[in-house]
Amino acid sequence: MARRLHIVIDDAIPFIRGVLEPFFRVTYLPGSEITSQDLKEVSGIIVRTRTLCNQALLENTGVRFVATATVGTDHLDLVYLKENQIEWMHAAGCNANSVCQYVLAAIFEILLQTKKTFKETTLGIVGAGAIGSRLHRLASALQMRCLICDPPLAAQKENSDFSNLDDILDQSDIVSLHVPLTTAGPHPTHHRIGDIEIKRMRSNAFLINTSRGPVVDNEALSYHLKSKTIAGAVLDVWEGEPNPDLTLLKQVLIGTPHIAGYSLDGKVNASIQVVRALAQYFRIDELKAFQLKLDPPESPAITGVFETEKLEFLHSVYKQAYDINRDSSLLKRSPAQFEEFRKNYPIRREPSAFILKADLYNEDNRDILQKLGFNLCV
Fold first, then answer.
1. Are residues 66 and 22 in the same domain?
2. Do both 59 and 109 map to the same domain?
């Protein structure tokens, strides 16, 4: 009998235990503790951002397939993987809805604080991938003016509607970042928002970063928040994770432990994608169409009193699905538990898991609620 292939999996990836065991020998390890020694006779690994997949980890191992249950790939040395003919995949777009849920929750909090309406607000979106393009659609549905910037995509398209970054910084009330972390090439994003860019922003503007911590120069941001160059910031990602700058954490309006994409729905999507990719590479026919189905939330119906003001109404609806301030309060009280909050993040469901009762909305709001992803009782 042929010996089964050995797979190592980050033990924090959900919904995957028991799935691969009928076909592989499986070992689960904390992602930050996986070593080269663990991979000597391993054919494939499934990781998250805490496992740096480079020469130091993979050289002289048996690994020939790497899957990451994340959108970002900055923890993968793609040059090394290519040079050594190691196949890889990432869960592209798996958490786009989750990150957009987080960003909209942050926008609602910002607008309630500044007392601005959607129509009075210009949103600048940097990065037009799966997340940025979806956020563009949602914000436009809210009747926010949207500017979007993506130099690599703009270079590929003639007569595009993309703005340049300077225009976004000059004109936006809120700037939201959705780019990969890169240090080379024609458009590197490391410290793309630094001292010069923050100085260019409006004094009443807010910065939201849910991409990667080093896309923003955290030291410069802290200086300018103290100097009131800009009005505030919302950070889900930090330089030096899992040890964010404690001064900056106190300064931001909302600070969370890299959980914007952590909805249960997004995690399910990521697990489905990595299992299918693994099945495709190792030719496991039984898993090529692997699927997971989530049960509805314990309380799928959203209730409350209809508000006449659209912002207050949408905020109250959104908050029942996801309370962003809860996540921020926990981290600000106990920053040393950054990784613990990530590992034991409570169940969060996206709007598509919820049903709104008919007495909660009128015809004016029906369309926007559906575009935000909620299900409406007829």
1. yes
2. no
Residue 162 covered by a domain: yes
| C-beta neighbour count of 93 within 10 angstroms | 17
> Which structure tokens are listed for 228?
């009131």
Q: Which residue type is seen at 350?
A: E
**3-class SS at 361?**
coil
pTM for this entry: 0.89
Instruction: Please list the alpha-helical segments (H only) found in the chain.
Output: 55-58, 78-83, 96-114, 130-141, 151-156, 165-171, 195-200, 218-226, 246-251, 264-282, 310-321, 324-333, 338-343, 363-371
Residues 186 and 215 in one domain: yes
Number of residues that this document lists for the chain: 378
Q: Does residue 363 form part of some domain?
A: yes
**Total domain count for the chain?**
3
Please tell me the predicted confidence (pLDDT) of residue 377: 80
378 neighbors 358 (Cβ within 8 angstroms): yes
**Token code pair at residue 167:** 């225009």
Q: Is residue 69 part of a domain?
A: yes
**Tell me, what's the pLDDT at 314?**
87
Residue 68 — left, alpha, or beta (φ > 0 → left; ψ -120 to 50 → alpha)? beta
Residue 216, classed as helix, strand or coil, is strand
Rounded CA-CA distance 149/161 in Å is 9
- What band does 278 get if pLDDT is binned at 50, 70 and 90? very high
pLDDT digits (tens, 9 = 90+) for 180-199: 999 988 999 999 999 999 99
The answer to whether the CB of 328 falls within 8 A of the CB of 257 is no
Q: Please give the positions annotated as active site.
A: 212, 241, 258
Q: Which residue from 269, 270, 251 is spatially nearest to 198, judged by alpha carbons?
A: 251
> Which residue from 269, 223, 318 is spatially nearest to 96, judged by alpha carbons?
269
Domain boundary among the residues 45, 72, 90 is at 90
276: in domain: no
Structural domain range at position 83: 6-90
